[in-house]
Write a structure and sequence with these properties.
heterodimer, A: about 270 residues, mainly alpha, 10 helices, B: alpha/beta, four-stranded antiparallel beta sheet, 10 strands
Chain lengths: ~270, ~260
């Protein structure tokens, strides 16, 4: 045995170093697990917060429409422009609607919308709940006999989980519209011909997997945003950190989930 | 019936605490606290910042759990009841936060309506509006009904914070530093409001403060939290005339700063 390790002065220091680095990580995972379990307990118990959930759906859904419309449209146009030269080389420009629709529905719309939502909605949740936490508004809610977790957290997570599939399908349609305008401007393809070709390629599994992904992404953004905000500490600095971590964590998890879901969907295709 | 929270004169404690201990890591903030507050009584608790005064009322309201000891509020042990029972108990406890803790995204009216509509769901809109008008008149701020919290002054925020707790007609009021950050005139107004609330709503209160004037004007009994322990509660003059060195330093510092 290494004589250094026999030295009792060394071991505690090593242990402390490992504890400092590893323990908080597992502690965080355990706390997130408890947070999610708490969410499901609250969601399944009365009273249900329908009014506030609908209000949050409006906040995260309707108020994100302008942003996702613009990004979806630009994504459709840019992807079409970038794909045309390659397809033209093989004389396959007529495949553009099929290629673009598959790319948008299967990958681009879910990813682009989720990343936009992580930035806009996730950071908003982190900052709003964080600010309420550090200014004792959440405590005030609790002492006035209102369940703040149910009112603030479950409603927000449900809202983003419900709204993400709608936003993603909407972004897909707007992206395909952008693509159509570009195709029409270059190849004079009619609206009917473009969308007949585009939708002819998309299968039920494509739509279903997109909706499934959207639900998972929405839940991830909601949990990350609310968890960070609800557990914010250390004043305004903590609020900034909560918002920032919510976005970074959501985006990272969205890419990991994308990778896993694609493997799964391709296996059953 | 032999109940520990009823004294020899048959008076029942609305807040009864025995040997309460609370630590955060290695730091002990409450180290064996005993309190008896009877109906209609105001207890002012003095102490330095960070001495654990706010922790005490957070334990009483169930926001924090004690490490050991007994905390009975209105005859119910706060840390031993179900979340649903705690929610019911909280309807009888008003908590006025140091920074008012008004909901930023709601107007004054919505702030006041929030606890009411969520806890008394069978009330009509007229009844809710009447209750809001009632508490706003009680705190003298009926003109602010449609304003947002960001448009209010510090004193007004404190008053609206108190009004929000009064709307549920609590039996106990917990004030956390009600005069901190306020000018002397506004502090006097808040002190008067605390006394007025007791008269009008028949509340018993704990007033956490480091403001000697506030403690003198609002407390029937005054005590001081020092090193996790309480001095024996007594009248302001008795506690104030102590010769204990650390207390004298606290008083002298307060006087210098209040001049």
């Amino acid at each position: 045995m290494n004589p250094e390790l026999e030295n009792s002065e060394v071991l505690p220091e090593n242990k402390s170093f490992v504890s400092r680095k590893i323990n908080p990580f597992f502690e965080d995972i355990y706390n997130v697990y408890k947070f999610i379990a708490h969410f499901f307990r609250e969601v399944s118990s009365r009273p249900f917060e329908w009014k506030e959930t609908i209000n949050q759906c409006y906040e995260v859904g309707y108020k994100s429409l302008a942003l996702v419309s613009l990004t979806g449209f630009i994504t459709g146009v840019v992807f079409t422009k970038q794909s045309r030269p390659s397809l033209s080389t093989f004389g396959a420009s007529s495949w553009l609607p099929s290629l673009v629709s598959i790319a948008i529905i299967r990958a681009l719309a879910p990813l682009v919308t989720a990343l936009i939502a992580a930035g806009k909605v996730g950071s908003n949740m982190g900052a709003e709940l964080g600010s309420m936490k550090v200014t004792e508004q959440i405590d005030a809610m609790e002492v006035s006999a209102t369940n703040p977790f149910k009112y603030l957290v479950t409603t927000r997570i449900l809202a983003i989980t419900f709204m993400m599939p709608i936003l993603i399908l909407y972004t897909g349609l707007v992206g395909m519209l952008g693509s159509y305008l570009n195709v029409h401007a270059n190849e004079l393809t009619s609206f009917t011909a473009y969308f007949k070709s585009a939708f002819g390629t998309i299968s039920f599994l494509d739509i279903f997997s997109s909706i499934f992904k959207a639900t998972i992404y929405g839940f991830t953004i909601g949990v990350a945003g609310c968890y960070q905000g609800y557990n914010a500490q250390n004043g305004t600095q903590g609020v900034g950190k909560a918002a920032n971590t919510a976005v970074v964590l959501s985006m990272f998890l969205i890419f990991v989930e994308e990778l896993v879901i694609v493997q799964f969907v391709n296996a059953i295709r | 019936m032999d109940r520990e929270d009823i004294n020899s004169e048959g008076k029942e404690s609305v807040i009864y605490i025995r040997d309460l201990k609370k630590s955060f890591g290695n730091r002990t903030v409450l180290n064996g606290i005993d309190i008896d507050i009877f109906k209609g009584e105001n207890l002012a608790i003095l102490g330095k910042s960070g001495s654990g005064k706010s922790v005490l009322i957070k334990i009483i309201s169930g926001l924090l759990k004690p490490d050991s000891g007994m905390v009975k509020v209105l005859g119910i042990e706060v840390d031993k009841i179900s979340p649903a029972a705690l929610q019911q108990l909280r309807l009888k406890i008003g908590f006025s936060f140091q920074n008012s803790a008004l909901y930023d995204s709601m107007s004054v009216k919505e702030n006041l309506a929030f606890p009411l509509v969520r806890n008394k769901r069978n009330l009509s809109t007229n009844e809710v509006n009447e209750a809001i008008e009632g508490v706003l008149n009680a705190v003298g701020l009926s003109q602010t009904i449609n304003q947002m919290p960001s448009e209010l002054s510090g004193g007004q925020r404190k008053r609206i914070g108190i009004a929000r707790t009064l709307i549920l007609q609590p039996e106990i009021m917990l004030y956390d530093e009600p005069t901190s950050g306020l000018d002397p005139m506004t502090s006097i107004e808040i002190n008067n409001l605390i006394n007025q609330v007791r008269e009008q709503y028949h509340t018993s209160s704990i007033i956490i403060t480091h403001d000697l004037t506030c403690a003198k004007n609002t407390g029937d009994k005054v005590t001081m939290l020092l090193n996790g322990k309480f001095l024996t509660p007594g009248k302001f003059e008795d506690v104030f005339n102590t010769q204990e060195e650390s207390l004298r330093t606290f008083y002298d510092y307060n006087f210098i700063n209040s001049k």
